[in-house]
Amino acid sequence: MADHAHNLRATARAGRPFGVITRGTTNQNRLRKCDRWMVAHPQISSLLRAQLAGPADAAPLALDVGYGASHTTTCEWARWLRTVRPDVRVTGLEISPERVLPPREGVTFELGGFELAGYRPQLVRAFNVLRQYDVDQVHEAWETVIERLAPGGFFVEGTCDELGRRCAWILLNAEGPQTLTLDWDPFELETPSEVAERLPKVLIHRNVPGEPIHEFLAAADQAWANNAGWAPHGPRVRWRHTHAELVAEGWPLVPQRRRYSDNWLTIDWASVAPRA
């Protein structure tokens, strides 16, 4: 199982980026599952397409917080977002001065952290960053970002494995966390609950009996087992029937309006949020 006990601590200081330097490793296409999900999300895509108040050439701004030691996934994200809004501005933020890069592929890079370098963006992404922090700093980081979003803005905070085959992320807005999404390669896992090792930091230690996320993953495994008869048709078909069974049981899953190559689900945050 992945090690999530990194326990780095950030200190907020006036005039300085909020965060700590993380390992910063990445791979090509590591975040493609979340990138695809974001451009297909109706509210995110509508926000990107919206005409902004201000100069006639105003375009939405997307910030990638903690992009790490490589520009790769930030530039990939920009390419995905431009399929929705060709003039979207994308900037990567890093608190390590040595990682700040010259502009490339229409993407800029600056020194900054969860304070967002003074910007008020429409969209923020932070992947594989908070998983290296103390869990008690997660909400502080969330609140720091949320209060700096442009009106109607979104923040996506998540975690994935090194090759991007197992992913989990939380969608937040001005009201706080809204949904949890789990996404995995259909040929990667034997059971849905195996994606738990990549849960976001706020949930990774809550996957224990008595917690909602544990109850939900157990229900997903049971529904998966109940639909074993569909296994000869492949894991994607089996998952579609599993997903339908979970909905029939009353789990508030967001409808899947199109078919993807991955197995994935999005569930209302209130159903999996940690108990106090």
From TrEMBL:
Keywords: Methyltransferase, Transferase. GO terms for biological process: methylation. GO terms for molecular function: methyltransferase activity. It comes from the Bacteria. The keyword Transferase applies. This is Class I SAM-dependent methyltransferase.
